């Protein structure tokens, strides 16, 4: 079937043989592959075409005198192709559609988080030492207002006002992070 003689209408004998093979065995082959593909018509059609390509590439198997019909050979090739395709799909992560991606949970990006931390560190360096001390104690080390007041030796009201003004200064330096600083 690979190299046929050219007929008067421009087609080859190989094309005629392949078309006859499709007409005679195409429906049963498609039915088998459709079951093996769990009802996926497009995948089954692709496998029918691949099976016929294999038949075209191996004409010696189709003309063997060992059997009367080529259908068993075609069915076996098609079944093996379907099994190989299923194994290949299982080896890869599953494909997802757009609808699934819209509902997918977003996982934070470590690079983004690291960049944000660097931005905040640089911004904290711009604060006065008094504001920086209060901010580090209250927000970064988790001390209460009373604990920060005792550690710094200042009244609790001063800790609150310094924290307020420190956050206000950070909002000016980090405009993109303003929602996070409330």
Explain this structure.
With 182 residues, this protein is mainly α. 69% of the residues lie in helices and 0% in strands. It starts with 12 loop residues before the first helix and ends in a 9-residue tail after the last helix.
H-E string: HHHHHHHHH
Distance between the termini: 76 Å
Low-confidence stretches: none
Please indicate the percent range of residues in DSSP E strands (runs of 2 or more). Answer: under 5%
- Radius of gyration computed on alpha carbons: 36 Å
Shape: rod-shaped
Largest sheet data: none
User: How many E strands?
Assistant: 0
The pLDDT mean sits at 82
**Structural class by secondary-structure content:** mainly alpha
By DSSP (H or I, 4+ residues per run), the number of helices equals: 9
**Residues in helix, %:** 55-70%
Write the layout of secondary structure elements.
Blueprint: H1 13-36, H2 41-57, H3 59-62, H4 71-91, H5 98-102, H6 110-125, H7 129-140, H8 145-152, H9 156-173
Helix pairs in contact: 1-2, 1-4, 2-4, 7-9, 8-9
Q: What's the quick description here?
A:
The protein is mainly alpha-helical and 182 residues long.
Salient structural properties:
single chain; about 180 residues; mainly alpha; 9 helices
């Amino acid at each position: 079937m690979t190299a046929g003689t050219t007929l008067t209408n421009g087609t080859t004998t190989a094309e005629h043989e392949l078309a006859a093979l499709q007409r005679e065995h195409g429906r049963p082959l498609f039915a088998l592959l459709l079951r093996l593909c769990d009802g996926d018509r497009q995948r089954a059609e692709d496998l029918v075409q691949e099976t016929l390509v294999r038949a075209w590439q191996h004409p010696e198997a189709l003309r063997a005198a060992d059997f009367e019909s080529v259908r068993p050979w075609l069915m076996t090739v098609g079944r093996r192709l379907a099994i190989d395709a299923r194994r290949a799909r299982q080896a890869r992560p599953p494909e997802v559609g757009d609808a699934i991606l819209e509902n997918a949970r977003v996982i934070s990006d470590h690079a983004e988080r690291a960049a944000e931390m660097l931005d905040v560190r640089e911004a904290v360096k711009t604060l006065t030492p008094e504001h920086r001390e209060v901010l580090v104690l209250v927000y970064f080390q988790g001390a209460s207002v009373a604990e920060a007041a005792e550690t710094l030796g200042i009244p609790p009201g001063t800790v609150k006002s310094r924290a307020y003004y420190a956050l206000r200064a950070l909002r000016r330096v980090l405009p993109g992070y303003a929602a996070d600083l409330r």
